[in-house]
Each structure stands twice: as structure tokens, then as C-alpha cells.
Write a structure and sequence with these properties.
CATH topology of the largest domain: Aminopeptidase
Number of strands: 14
Strand order of the largest sheet: 1-2-3-4-5-14-6
Oligomer: single chain
Structural class: alpha+beta
Number of domains: 2
Number of helices: 11
Order of helices and strands: EHHHEEEHEHEEHHEHHEEEHEHEE
Length: 300
């Protein structure tokens, strides 16, 4: 079911019904940032209160990201500077302050010399982008430890790699429940947000046109991953979960999904580390091809 995006200053809570309008805009203006994907926008819509509107012919998405009222950069090519100032003025009039999040480096640079604006680096939300072939082949000394984990996994366990389909979605939910129980997600706000995100993607897997894969051992899902088309050469990887009772399973699902599930893409965007030191170390250990830099813009 489709839902029309209203005109500013009217807003509509974002849902999968907006996917056709969003994807049409993304085809005209291919995104690099992982936030500009149906999975992110809809999956986190309850947590971050994502709302959508049209302004000056652009699509503008507002929300409350990490307790900061904000907009993402306008999706479009019409009067962008005017649109950004209108968005900031709206936030200031309604909430007293606000900012534009996830601003690409080239756009942020245009505001550095304007004394009305503060531009800040958002390193915690840089996206990590990898060559699919690097993660599929794991060639060279840089990936020796990863290769060893994958080989140990393949040697020790009799597993089945399957594309993610509706008949195993329920098993993925059970694995997520187990994963969350071990980490006491209900006691951690960020883990609770992530859990809600995972369930929302699983519950709307077909509607949101996602794709993914699972590893089954003894007929049961012990790892799964969920991804989405981001642009003509890049897939965004939203979810990767595994039962760590099986040594090497995270390295295996990463490797096998790149080998089979992402073979038509040049890059995979594995999203942010959100400032988590352990996650940053893990993402860097796979040697990204590049990082997608992001900045915040707000009035001084």
C-alpha cells in the first residue's frame, strides 16, 4: 500500500508505504549514506520518530536522533541551501534548536565559511564501506586471521547457507531473542532500539524489499544477515546476528554472504560504529576501502 508524502509544514510518520516515492528520489539522487535506505528509515522510525515531508520539490526527513531534533539532508536538487535554512528555522521555532544530521563532506564544506552556522564532524556515524571482493575472497596477509576463522568453522560444522526467505524468518526471530536475552537488551536503551529495529525488518522483510541470508546447523538458523540495495554499486548491510557458541560463525556469514549474496555489487556499506570502541575495532579489522564522512550543521 502506497502513502503520499505531504507538503511542508505537514508531516507523515514514515513507513514502507513511502518506499516508491523515496526510491524514485534515490534513483535520481543516489545516496552514499546508510541512513538513506528504506530499512534504516522505516526500521528506526519508532525509535527516532522519523517523519517525512516535501519542501521545495525535495523530500525532507525529520526525527529525534539521540535526543536531538533534526533533519537529514534534503533528498533532491532544488534550492538546497534555502531548504536547509527552512528546516533549521522550523526546528528552532518549534524546539528552540536543532540540526541537520549526516551531511556529506561536500555539502558541509559549503557552510564552513558562513559565520551563522556551526559545522561539526560526526566520526561516530561515519559509514564503513568495503570492497565486496575483499570480503568474499579474504586474500592476503591482512585477512589471514579471518580466513582461519572461516576455515575452522567450515571444517568443524556441517552447515547450510540459504537465502533469507519467509519460511525461516521465525527462526531468525528466535535467534534474535536469544541474542538479546544473553545481552540483557531490555536494560540497555541502544540495544533495545537495535532489537526493535531487527524485529521490524524481519516483520516487513518482503514489504521493504530487503534481502539476506542465513546459516543453518542441524536445520536451525544460527546466523542471519539482512541487506538492501543502496545505489547501483553498493548494498547496505543492516543486520548481522549469530550464535557465538559456534566459533567463527560471524566471519563465516560475512564471508559467505559477500561471496553469494552480494556478488552483483562492488561495495558493501556496513554502516556506523556509533562510537563503540569494540565495534570500531571490529570494523577496522576488515580494512574498509573508505569511510563515508558525515557532519552536522546547526545555527550558531
Amino acid at each position: 500500500m502506497t502513502a503520499a508524502i505531504p507538503t511542508f509544514p505537514e508531516f507523515s510518520p514514515i513507513d514502507c508505504g513511502h518506499k516508491e516515492e523515496l526510491r524514485s528520489a534515490f534513483r535520481q539522487h543516489p545516496p552514499d549514506i546508510s541512513e538513506f535506505s528504506t530499512g534504516f528509515l522505516y526500521g528506526y522510525s519508532d525509535n527516532f520518530k522519523h517523519e517525512v515531508t516535501r519542501l521545495n520539490g525535495n523530500i525532507c526527513i525529520a526525527g529525534n536522533l539521540h535526543y536531538q531534533h533534526s533533519f537529514f539532508p534534503p533528498i533532491g536538487g532544488n534550492r538546497i541551501a534555502e531548504t536547509i535554512e527552512t528546516c533549521l528555522a522550523y526546528l528552532k521555532s518549534k524546539y528552540g534548536k536543532g540540526r541537520i544530521n549526516a551531511v556529506p563532506k561536500t555539502l558541509a564544506a559549503q557552510y564552513l565559511s558562513d559565520p551563522r552556522f556551526k559545522v561539526s564532524d560526526d566520526r561516530d556515524n561515519y559509514d564503513y564501506v568495503y570492497l565486496v571482493q575483499d570480503l568474499a575472497q579474504l586474500h592476503g596477509s591482512l585477512y589471514q586471521s579471518k580466513r582461519n576463522f572461516v576455515r575452522q568453522f567450515e571444517k568443524k560444522y556441517l552447515y547450510e547457507y540459504k537465502a533469507l526467505t519467509p519460511d525461516i524468518i521465525e527462526q531468525c526471530k528466535h535467534l534474535q531473542e536469544k541474542w538479546c536475552s544473553l545481552r540483557e537488551c531490555k536494560l540497555d536503551v541502544s540495544l533495545s532500539y537495535e532489537t526493535n529495529f531487527v524485529y521490524k525488518l524481519l516483520n516487513n522483510f518482503g514489504t521493504c524489499e530487503l534481502f539476506g541470508a542465513a546459516l543453518l546447523i542441524d536445520g536451525k538458523v544460527q546466523a542471519f544477515t539482512i541487506a538492501e540495495h543502496l545505489n547501483h554499486e553498493t548494498a547496505a548491510l543492516h543486520v548481522e546476528k549469530a550464535n557465538t557458541e559456534y566459533r567463527g560463525i560471524y566471519q563465516a556469514i560475512n564471508n559467505l554472504f559477500c561471496l553469494y549474496g552480494l556478488k552483483d555489487y562492488v561495495f558493501v556499506n556496513r554502516e556506523q560504529d556509533v562510537g563503540d570502541a569494540g565495534l570500531r575495532k571490529a570494523k577496522l579489522s576488515y580494512h574498509p576501502h573508505h569511510l563515508v564522512e558525515k557532519y552536522n550543521i546547526e545555527y550558531v
